[in-house]
Amino acid sequence: MVREMTSETSFSRTLVTGGAGFVGSHLVDRLMLEDCDVTVIDNLSSGDRRNLEKWFDHSRFKLIMADLKNFKKVKGAIRDVETIFHMAANPEVSVGTQNPGIHFEENLLATFNILEAIRQSGVAKQIIFTSTSTVYGEAEEVPTPEDYSPMLPISTYGATKLGCEALICAYCHTFNLRSLILRLANVVGSKSRHGVIYDFVQKLRKNPRSLEILGDGSQKKSYLYIDDCVDAIIHLTKGFLKRSSGTEIYNVGSHDQVTVKEIAEIVIDVMGLKDVDLVYTGGVDGGRGWKGDVKYMQLSIDKLLKTSWKPVHSSAEAVKLAANDLMSEISMKLAK
């Protein structure tokens, strides 16, 4: 579902980092429909060219296959753009338990290169950064508002995303730039190739009688459907660019939560399976899926609601839609 935009686009020449990835490619689709000139830079480590192929021959679209850790490439990509949507990141939170350097390089180093390129370009003046709910760590206040403190991430992913936020704020203050920081809940939907829904579907395709669930199943978080996510990004960006300089921060999520056990039951139902044994691993640190997994998460979206925007879908609805999306994609792939 794509919601019709009623306000005039307040940005035209855009760069989307990680634009071949899950959220990035959906954002590219929306920006192209908004008549923007869109340049994508992506090293395709987790993205897919096929997510963008509909735009390959369009005069307003350009794909640069390059790594954000290559400053020369980043500087060249930013040369003629006004607004940067910085979506690129390694999407796997748990990878930090095996290789913390990946999050440092793909998040902090890449963001530093982008900010330096913006500073030197003299053209680009604003950056929209997709951060994460994991920057809050184990928040004692749930739903968690934007001004919650202290922010104590428990994963290297959350820590480096918080570091990116700090770099962005400092650059904006020092060099008179503008930034919009969006702390996203768990985003799900078509073209996603990681996360609990994807993992459950793949496991059940291999063994439809039993499903292994990491942790104790009581992990409870909010989920945001991709259409709601992209709509919120566009809505907030348009409002932000009409205002003065500085940095603004918004949580972007749904009104509620859903447990991992409930997600498993939704996926099983979507797949049309019966009598599936749910096998819990027990997890670590009190039933978490992995070291650094935030067990309970729900973002306060009161600030977002005050901008006259609200999500269409609940967490459970988002999960069901995402599971249906994935099954449709699998069916289409098998039919080819």
Q: What is the straight-line distance between the termini? A: 25 Å
Count of separate structural domains: 2
Q: Encode the helix/strand succession as letters.
A: EHEEHEHEHEEHEEEHEEHEEHH
Overall number of strands: 14
> What composes the largest sheet?
7 strands, parallel
* Share of helical residues: 25-40%
CATH architecture of the largest domain: 3-Layer(aba) Sandwich
Mean pLDDT: 93
Strand order of the largest sheet: 3-2-1-4-5-6-11
Supply the helix-strand structural class. Answer: alpha/beta
The CATH topology label of the largest domain is: Rossmann fold
CATH class of the largest domain: Alpha Beta
- Could you name the ranges where pLDDT drops below 50 across 5 or more consecutive residues? 1-9
* Fourth-tier CATH superfamily name of the largest domain: NAD(P)-binding Rossmann-like Domain
β-sheet strand percentage: 15-25%
> What would you call the shape?
globular
Number of helices: 9
Cα-based radius of gyration, to the nearest Å? 19 Å
